[in-house]
UniProtKB/TrEMBL annotation:
Keywords: Disulfide bond, FAD, Flavoprotein, NADP, Oxidoreductase, Redox-active center. It is an enzyme of class 1 (oxidoreductase). InterPro entries: FAD/NAD-bd_sf, FAD/NAD-binding_dom, Ferredoxin-NADP_redctase_2, Pyr_nucl-diS_OxRdtase_2_AS, Thioredox_Rdtase. Its cofactor is FAD. This is Thioredoxin reductase. Belongs to the class-II pyridine nucleotide-disulfide oxidoreductase family. One of its GO terms (molecular function) is thioredoxin-disulfide reductase (NADPH) activity. Residues 5-298 form the FAD/NAD(P)-binding domain. It comes from Alkaliphilus hydrothermalis.
Length: 315
């Protein structure tokens, strides 16, 4: 008979690792599955400056390493495997990976969400070195520098306004000739003296040796190509991309309730529409996607999973 875990957690980002810690500390047999890099999005973050208590300049990898160590210390198992299908029809859930099949009394889905990339040369190489997808995370690094914000929706414009608290100048780069953000948000942006706009414009290439040093723009109406270089006194500038997020939830379509964008719909206790299945982290509908909210989700999901198992299997 295959081993039946109390909890199988899909995803080893902050939400999954937090869930693993709480589940293992509660003496539940716990398995965390991760298909690629442990830590999720913070694995590529140079410094996690807004995580409470992180005052010694913890990096994403170092914070992740601590979380992993805690999980293992309390007995959580970790396995590198890509989940290809799940079956939640029976009380014992079945998780099919490329390598193995796993069985669990409860499942916590924490697959995360990934920012939609621009898909231009230099973007991946300079992510975390001037290219960012989170103003809340990285705005402070660009105090008194210039930054460009790519996008024209609510998130892009709101983040641009947030960035004006730090940067000396913020330029919104948008593919169209008018913003898609709500009119009330637009009005505030237009009134902000620190915000400029580049209409009908797309980024074609991001350049730099170790940090962002230049960016190439294309005017989508005229075809004109221009290049912006960092001021010599600065040496760099910021590029913040807000063209959408992609929740990594395709595996669960048709099984778990989602909104139109593909984010899991849960209640405050991380419960999905399937008993014994929980969702945690950036993959679910929420107002703030940060490490601090992800770890809170994971803790709640694990505590609720313990209650579910006690009620369902031990009474």
């Amino acid at each position: 008979m295959e081993k039946i875990y109390d909890v199988v957690i899909i995803g080893a980002g902050p939400a999954g690792l937090s869930a693993g810690l709480y589940a293992a500390r509660a003496k539940m047999s716990t398995l965390i599955l991760e298909k690629s890099k442990t830590g999720g999005q913070i694995a590529t973050t140079e410094e996690v400056a807004n995580y409470p208590g992180s005052i010694e300049h913890a990096s994403g990898p170092s914070l992740t390493a601590r979380m992993v160590e805690q999980c293992k210390e309390f007995g959580a198992e970790m396995e590198k495997d890509t989940v290809v299908s799940v079956n939640f029809d029976e009380p014992i859930k079945v998780i099919q990976g490329e390598k193995n099949t796993y069985h669990a009394r409860a499942v916590i889905a924490a697959p995360g969400a990934s920012p939609r990339l621009l898909g231009v040369p230099g973007e991946k190489e300079l992510t975390g070195k001037g290219v960012s997808y989170c103003a809340t995370c990285d705005a402070d690094f660009f105090t008194d520098f210039e930054v460009f914000v790519v996008g024209g929706g609510d998130s892009a414009v709101e983040e641009a306004m947030f960035l004006t608290k730090f940067a000396r100048k913020v330029t919104i780069v948008h593919r169209r000739e008018e913003l898609r953000a709500a009119k009330s948000i637009q009005e505030k942006a237009f009134k902000n003296p620190k915000i400029d706009f580049m209409w009908n414009t797309a980024i074609k290439e991001i350049k730099g040796d170790g940090v962002v040093e230049a960016v190439t723009f294309e005017n989508l109406v005229t075809g004109e190509i221009t290049e912006y270089e960092a001021h010599e006194d600065d040496g760099t500038f910021g590029i913040f991309c807000f063209v959408g997020y992609l929740p990594q939830t395709d595996l669960f379509k048709g099984l778990l309730d989602m909104d139109k964008a593909g984010y899991f719909i849960t209640d405050d206790n991380m419960k999905t529409n399937v008993p014994g299945v929980y969702a945690a982290g950036d993959c679910r509908v929420k107002s703030l996607r940060q490490v601090v909210t992800a770890v809170a989700d994971g803790a709640i999901a694990a505590v609720q999973a313990e209650k579910y198992i006690d009620h369902t299997f031990h009474e």
